[in-house]
Design a protein that fits this description.
This protein is an alpha/beta fold and 168 residues long. It has helices spanning 2-12, 55-66, 92-100, and strands spanning 16-17, 20-24, 31-37, 40-45, 74-79, 103-104, 128-132, 140-145, 151-155. InterPro entries: Fe-S_Maturation_MIP18, FSCA_dom_sf, MIP18-like, PaaD-like, Zn_ribbon_PaaD.
Length: 168
């Protein structure tokens, strides 16, 4: 299974989120569980937001990519709403690819209820301001860089319900 699992994860790293080109569903941390039984693959995924309009497209793209593997007979993809996705699940590669796409990764040490900000993905300046918490999708906000004067999007920070950051 280990070799098959490695092959499956390698393929999942090539399936981009349709709303975030160049950022894979794997690097967004959406893959919750993967099982192989007699060449049938079952994948449980966690949506970034429950109402995400791209879930059907993601499901189709993941299934199509996995079924391209020679030994895979079929692939079943299901979204689990039993588990919570958090921005902590985004891999370092995912964060780098977000920046390449002009989207700032979420802040590392977000405290719920407090205002947050991130560095500009274009010039890395910390002199940014929140223009609109509501961005083009449910998972992004619009900020403005006061140094390079570019507006940009940022992933909204999401932590587990009831989770608390340690202070200090």
């Amino acid at each position: 299974m280990e070799k098959k699992g490695d092959e499956l994860f390698a393929v999942l790293k090539t399936v981009d989120d349709p709303e975030l080109p160049a950022v894979s569903v794997y690097d967004l941390g959406m893959i919750h569980d993967l099982k192989v039984e007699r060449n049938i693959v079952s994948i449980s995924m966690v949506p970034t937001f429950a109402g995400c309009p791209a879930l059907d497209i993601i499901e189709k793209d993941v299934r199509k990519a996995i079924e391209q593997i020679d030994w895979v007979q079929e692939c079943h993809v299901a979204f689990s709403f039993q588990h919570e996705w958090t921005t902590d699940a985004i891999t370092d590669t995912g964060k780098r690819n977000l920046k390449k796409h002009g989207i700032a990764p979420p802040p590392d040490h977000y405290i719920p209820g407090e205002q947050w900000t991130v560095n500009c993905p274009y010039c890395d300046s910390e002199y940014t301001s929140m223009e609109n918490v509501f961005g083009p999708t449910a998972c992004r906000s619009i900020l403005y860089c006061m140094e390079c004067r570019n507006p940009f999007e940022a992933m909204k920070p999401v932590i587990r319900t009831g989770a608390r950051q340690k202070s200090g």
